[in-house]
Amino acid sequence: MKGILLLGILLTVAPVSKASLYDAIDTSRAYECFRLASGKMLGNWIRVEADSLAAAEATARAHFQTSGGPVDAVRCYLVY
C-alpha cells in the first residue's frame, strides 16, 4: 500500500518538477552589437542578452535609435 501511495505522489509531482526545471533554464545568450551608418561602423559596441540573433539585433536597434544618431543597419555577434 505504501509503495502505491509513493508511486502516486511521484507521478503527480514529477511533471510539475520537470516543467519548473525547464522554466528555470535561461536560454538567452550574450551578443555584442554595433551600428552601421553610411557603410561605416558608428559608435561603440554594446552587449545585449537575447534568445536569438534576430532578437538581439532588434534590441540593439531600439537601443541605438533611442540614443540618437543614424542607424542604417545593426550587426550582432554571439559572445562565447
TrEMBL record:
Residues 1-19 form the signal peptide. Keywords: Signal. This is SPOR domain-containing protein. The lineage of its organism: Bacteria, Pseudomonadati, Pseudomonadota, Gammaproteobacteria, Oceanospirillales.
